[in-house]
Amino acid sequence: MSRKVAVFRKEHFNAAHRLYNPAWDMAKNDAVFGKCNNPNFHGHNYELVVKVVGEPDPETGYVMDLKILSDLIRDEVLEHFDHRNLNLDTPFFKDSNPTAENICIVIYELLRAKIDPKFDLQVRLYETERNFVEYPVNN
Ligand SMILES: Nc1nc2c(c(=O)[nH]1)N=C([C@H](O)[C@H](O)COP(=O)(O)OP(=O)(O)OP(=O)(O)O)CN2
Ligand SMILES: [Zn+2]
Questions:
Q1: Quick one: pLDDT at residue 62?
Q2: CATH level 3 topology of 5-14+43-135
Q3: Quick one: pLDDT at residue 30?
Q4: Which of the residues 36, 76, 80, 104 is marked catalytic?
Q5: What is the pLDDT of residue 14?
Q6: Which of 55, 79, 83, 109 is catalytic?
């Protein structure tokens, strides 16, 4: 029987963004993205939940030390995203929109590169209290 356990770390960051498609005119961007297309940007208080799944180490009882996970999220994610303009201050959304979906995928990829492949990883990102996304699915 599997002894896999999921451990979670919650973090938050504040960031500004604008959702628009540069290939479209303002009218179409307004129609699709509404107030999220404000050229002067707008902000969200993002809540981030990182889930790591694996078997507890027999010597420590830890799946992964949550202090190490916390430091990793700080260094790999929050340093890039917190109090930043996601369109202008980060390199991640030059060719894509900083939607919750795309931000979640970027965060997953940043963390996946640093977390031992023996662990499964899943990221949940709340853009508002009621709007949230998860990547990857079915973990
Ligand atoms: N599939 C997606 N839809 C929307 C996204 C997104 O990232 N993925 N993003 C937005 C806006 O950026 C933003 O989330 C909308 O914010 P807001 O208008 O404040 O949202 P609500 O009015 O629904 O606020 P609640 O507090 O959640 O009620 C839009 N769509
Ligand atoms: Zn928004």
A1: 98
A2: Tetrahydropterin Synthase; Chain A (3.30.479)
A3: 98
A4: 36
A5: 98
A6: 83
- pLDDT at residue 76 in the model: 98
Task: Return the pLDDT at 1.
Answer: 85
Output the CA torsion sign for 129, 134, 138, 139. Answer: negative
Neighbours of 52 (CB within 10 A): 21
Does the predicted model carry a pTM greater than 0.90? Answer: yes
Q: Which residues of the chain have pLDDT under 70?
A: 139
Long-range CB contacts (within 8 A, 24+) of 126-131: 126/46, 126/47, 126/48, 126/49, 127/44, 127/46, 127/100, 128/44, 131/100
Asked if 36 is an active-site residue, the reply is yes
Residues within 6 Å of ligand 1 by CB: 19, 36, 99-101, 127-131
Residue-range domain boundaries for the chain: 5-14+43-135
